[in-house]
Every structure is written in structure tokens, then in C-alpha cells.
Amino acid sequence: MYSTPAAAHTAGIGGASLLATGFHTLATIVAATTLLMAATAVARLLPRNRR
Description:
Layout: H1 3-11, H2 16-45
């Protein structure tokens, strides 16, 4: 009973798995950009070495 929907999902009926892959890729790009911008903001707050 529970194995049929999982098999249908992995087969990509209706393009569901392709759509999920696209959202996963977009979420990965957004997360990487957010982490990069946060690191840049923190780096700007740190005092610079004066020699």
C-alpha cells in the first residue's frame, strides 16, 4: 500500500521530481548567497590590523 506512491514519486510522474530538483537547486543557491553575504557583513564589523 505504501510502496506504490513512493515508486510513483521516484519515477517523476507529472514532472514532480524535476520540479523538486529545481526548487532544491534554487534553495541551495539562496543559502550559499545568504551565507556569503553574512560572512561579508561580519568581516566588515571586525577591526582591521593597523601596522
